[in-house]
Design goal:
Chain lengths: 211, 248
């Protein structure tokens, strides 16, 4: 069917070319330009083929003069050049249509990803809030523990002071009876010195907040 | 032109409505600055393979009931034609996206929540280089979330009104997706299926499977990474992205 149509088109074209070479070629070119399809190059090759057939057909039209034949050929050749140009122009748009898809899809992906991205940022923000809450809790716990340790140290300090006062009481009693000798005195002084150092150690470890 | 003005007015009105809902409440939110880098590749069913490297900067604000942000990508696009062994490389800024969202139904004891968002894609990219569509798109999205213990299931629907350009006819886009995420300590891992209808007539509908995670390093810095696999020739075949966010 297509072949019959093409033959009919050629015969019709030959008849019209005999009258005016612009008509059929111009109509083909205009129809092609407004197609705006990415497979425009394929269409333009079909039109080029038709125009070549027209050009060849002209040589067999004996009724036309040489001048009329050349004029028709020039016109058809010009229209053919325009269709080739249009074909490449359409194919250029088609190239952008496919090669430009990455840029288009990049944008569309970002747009389509909005909700997932938003949900993720919300979860991230919530998780950071939980982390900040946990850090605050840990800080509170550390301060509570430090106060507890102060209490323990205070207890140690109190016991030590009790021992020290007992030793001093015994020492004063011995001194009053005149029974303290040098050896006992030295032993008592060593004990007092040791207790003094322990008291100093406990005092230095008490944190600033409790002083 | 009139339709563009009408769309702009609608977008501004909806943004104002979202933000005005919470003005009477004392919302404590945080700003964030995100820097990401990614790679995408695909042939879209042709003999030309496109490789895209991009840097993406994000700036936004997130509060308990609403959020807003802007994303600005910079693209490096390489097109490699296998049959001719030719390579073309272009780079430039990509389309800029403005986004605003709100929690329409907060998560209660049932664990169900419903969010909505509006987004505008500004045609900042050079479409003649193939870096963007050239049109300004407006999108509306919603998501339904259900939390079950430490796992969250999400369903998403969206509609994008595609901006038209000369010598091209774009279809509006319907987007859809489903995802599942789970928290492990200070790490959140997720996987999702995301798809949308084709913008260009005759092209296949893009669809991807995403896998990713983010980890909170401290109260100011978080890191994230993801990759996706394309399921059709309508979209990229593979991609990956990594980045970090600094919270103020």
């Amino acid at each position: 069917m297509n072949e019959l149509k093409q033959i009919g088109l050629i015969l019709e074209s030959l008849f019209i070319v005999a009258k005016d070479g612009w008509y059929i070629s111009g109509a083909n070119a205009i129809d092609f330009i407004i197609q705006r399809r990415w497979y425009g190059l394929i269409k333009s090759t079909v039109l080029i083929r038709k125009n070549i057939i027209l050009i060849l057909g002209i040589y067999f039209i004996k009724q036309l003069s040489r001048r009329e034949q050349m004029n028709s050929i020039y016109k058809i050749a010009l229209i053919t050049a325009l269709t080739i140009f249009s074909g490449f122009a359409q194919m250029g748009n088609g190239k952008d249509h496919k090669d430009g898809m990455m840029g288009t899809q990049q944008s569309n992906q970002m747009m389509g990803n909005q909700m997932m991205s938003q949900n993720m940022m919300h979860d991230m923000s919530g998780m950071m809030g939980d982390m900040m809450g946990m850090m605050q809790q840990m800080n509170d716990m550390m301060q509570h523990n430090m106060k507890s340790m102060d209490h323990a140290r205070m207890m140690d300090m109190s016991k030590m002071m009790g021992d020290m006062s007992e030793n001093m009481k015994g020492m004063s009693g011995q001194m009053a009876k005149g029974k303290m000798n040098a050896k006992q005195m030295k032993k008592m002084q060593e004990r007092m010195s040791k207790m003094h150092k322990q008291m100093e150690s406990l005092s230095k470890n008490v944190p600033e907040e409790t002083k | 032109m009139r339709s563009i003005i009408c769309y702009k007015r609608a977008v501004f009105a909806l943004f104002f409505a979202f933000f005005s809902v919470e003005t009477s409440q004392a919302e404590t939110g945080r700003f964030y600055l995100g820097l990401n880098g990614g790679y995408k590749t695909g042939s879209f069913g042709t003999q030309v393979r496109s490789d895209l490297f991009y840097g993406l900067s994000e700036f936004g604000y997130i509060a308990a009931r609403y959020e807003a942000g802007i994303a600005v990508p910079y693209l490096f696009l390489n097109n490699n034609a296998a049959h001719s062994n030719s390579l073309s490389a272009v780079n430039g800024i990509g389309d800029v996206i403005l986004r605003g969202g709100a929690v329409l139904l907060a998560e209660g004891e049932s664990g169900f929540s419903f969010d909505g968002a509006l987004a505008v894609k500004l045609a900042a990219a050079d479409r003649f280089k193939g870096l963007g569509s050239g049109g300004t798109d407006i999108g509306a999205f919603c998501s339904a979330n259900q939390r079950v213990m430490g796992t969250k299931i999400t369903f998403i629907l969206g509609y994008i009104k595609a901006g038209q350009v000369s010598n091209a006819a774009f279809n509006d886009i319907y987007s859809y997706g489903a995802g599942i995420s789970r928290i492990f300590g200070f790490t959140n891992a997720y996987t999702s299926f995301e798809g949308r209808t084709a913008m260009i007539a005759g092209a296949q509908n893009p669809a991807e499977i995403h896998i990713g995670a983010f980890h909170v390093l401290n109260r100011r810095v978080s890191i994230k990474g993801s990759l996706f696999i394309g399921l059709s020739d309508g979209g990229p075949g593979f991609g990956s992205e990594a980045g970090m966010a600094h919270w103020f």
